[in-house]
Amino acid sequence: MSTTKAADYSAIALPQAWGDERNFYALLDGMRRDDPVVWLEPEGFRPFWAVTRHADIMEIERQNEKFHNWPRPVLQSIAQEEAVRAFTGGSEVLLRTLIHMDNPDHRVFRAISQDWFQPRNLNKLQEGIADLAKRTVDRMAEKQDCDFVSEVALPYPLHVILMILGAPESDGPMMMKLTQELFAPADPDAEQQDKALTDMSTIEQAFAYFTQMTEDRRATPRDDMASVIANARIGGEYMNHLEVMSYYMIIVTAGHDTTSSSTSGGLLAMIRHPDQFERLKADPSLLNAAVDEMIRWSTPVKHFMRTAAEDYTLRGKTIRKGDTVMLLYHAANRDEDAFADPLAFRIDRAPNRHLAFGYGPHLCLGQYLAKMEMRALFAELLPRLEHVELAGDPALVQSSFVSGLKRLPIRYRIR
Fold it and tell me: Is residue 328 within a helix (H) or strand (E), and if so which, with residue range?
């Protein structure tokens, strides 16, 4: 592969590349086709390997003893890394969540909430989520147009998160701000662009909020996720303060923005593929498969990073011990070796072994909840939605980590 192409592919590290749909598809398709395991040295970033093939990502993900999450679980610029070290007094990371952990810690900390996120426990939320979905669609029905992202796709899963934490809906704006500033600080439409490089006041506010929540749930436990986190014990002791704060943060941020992106991305896909929209309206039994296809199509988590614990050969390339690897899930979910006709949006796709939730030991804990939320919303929306069309140009968030639509203006008729 030429140096010129490698330099071009390095643009995948830049948040703005992900705000241009044609650009990032061209980058990912080119990498997957021409050099699926490629060494990149983007300006302003520490270098890394980029991996784009479905089978290769699965190979790495299943071997968590050879590829570690710590100390570089996500791609950050050198400037962002330095800002975090300055704020934390030398630590490479701001938080210590499940995505930062390797075994044995990962196994122990994951077990704290794993049972709670299983379908048998989540079933108790179905009635509340269905009610929230109905109220959401009822509000849509009061109008004939809206920005589906800001008025539906963002607040709906956020209110589910508030529900499972046992927090009031009035706390939504603070949670929304936290998610957007952590996942997309470089987007030009962010309320405070590049906030992560200037100060950490949002993190401090969140820590104060969750500290108060922890004190309340330890004094008076409830049947909610906040009580599970606050009262979890490891080796007979409560988790330390950073671990407790980090657990809340991963539940709020990962459980909100990802579902929002899949929901809005799914609706846009159906608008662009009206035959699939009409087919789903005519046959609601396809909803489960359609939700999985919406998630594959959107793939909100664009990447995670892994660090090689030993030398490893992948497609003839030697990944040296200490090298970091960027797993590009969006590219893998368009891999023609893994999916029949991967560039087609098909609501009946089966099998659909997408990697939007990851793979292996770090498979997303919240996958069942995310699908439950999306099924509830579309089960309420589709029978009532007589017509929908774009009312302007959609726009994507500029973020290389978790991203999706930031605007989806639509006109519609809902009965």
Answer: strand 324-328
> Which amino acid is it at 209?
Y
> Which phi and psi (to 5°) does residue 40 adopt?
-120, 145
Task: Record the tokens describing residue 128, joined without a space.
Answer: 């509340």
Buried-exposed string 185-224: b where 16+ CB fall within 10 A, e elsewhere: bbbeebeebebbeeebebbeebbebbeebbeebeeeeeeb
Q: How far apart are CA 314 and CA 285, in angstroms?
A: 41
Cα–Cα separations (whole angstroms), residue 244 to 88, 98, 168, 239:
16, 11, 20, 6
Using CA atoms, how far residue 222 sits from 82, 216, 250, 313, in Å, is 40, 10, 20, 50
Q: Is the pLDDT of residue 195 over 70?
A: no
Q: How many domains does the chain have?
A: 1
Could you give the CA distance from residue 233 to residue 76 in angstroms, rounded to a whole number? 32
Q: What is the CATH number of the domain that holds 119?
A: 1.10.630.10
Longest CA–CA span in the chain (Å) reads 62
Angstrom distances, CA of residue 84 to CA of 43, 92, 162, 291? 19, 7, 28, 37
pLDDT digits (tens, 9 = 90+) for 402-412: 999 999 999 99
The answer to whether the beta carbons of residues 408 and 149 sit under 8 Å apart is yes
User: What 3-state class would DSSP assign to 123?
Assistant: helix
Quote the tokens at residue 151. Answer: 């008025």
What pLDDT, on a 0 to 100 scale, did the predictor assign at position 137?
Answer: 98
The pLDDT value given to residue 279:
97
Residue 62: partners with Cβ closer than 8 Å, 6 or more residues away: 359, 360, 361
| CA–CA distance, 400 with 410 (Å, rounded to integer) | 26
Q: Taking 80 as the threshold, does the pLDDT of residue 7 lie above it?
A: no
Domain membership of residue 244 as a residue range = 3-414
Residue 122: both structure tokens together: 């989540």
| 372 in Cβ contact with 160 (< 8 Å) | no
Confidence of residue 83 (pLDDT cuts 50, 70, 90): confident
Angle between helices 367-381 and 155-165 (to 10 degrees): 130
- Can you tell me the distance from the alpha carbon of 233 to that of 37, in angstroms, rounded to the nearest whole number? 41
Residue position matching structure tokens 């710590």? 70
What is the distance between the alpha carbons of residues 69 and 82, in angstroms, rounded to a whole number?
19
